[in-house]
Amino acid sequence: MDEYQQVYTGLWLILSTIIIQAIILIRAHRKQKSYKVGVMDASLGQDSFLFRAYRTFWNSLENIVPIFGMSIIAIMVDYTASVLTIIVWVYAISRIIHMFLYYIVATDRNPSIRSVFYITGFLANVYLMVDLGVFLVL
Hints:
Layout: H1 5-30, H2 49-76, H3 81-104, H4 113-137
Helix pairs in contact: 1-2, 1-3, 2-3, 2-4, 3-4
């Protein structure tokens, strides 16, 4: 068994979560009374599920690039598989919890409970960035 199999599975879960978010966003958007292809009502706020689905999806797109890119680099340079597995799974689980909380918590308050899971995923990214950087230099 490839030592990075759990990393691949975690990355698959992260990408699959984004696809699921896209499906939820598309369904929420098409249910709108004034639905127009490619047009999002700029007046929507946190009280709108469509707004929260839109923000959840785009937030995930903004955050996938660093974790995915650094994970690929880590695999290519033979970074410690067990450490990478933990980082990727912490990120994946925190993003799923963040997604669910974004769907159900309608608040303009920041930080909110969903911020805890956003920060957890962000810190996983930062940890990988620093540790992988040290690994590459040494």
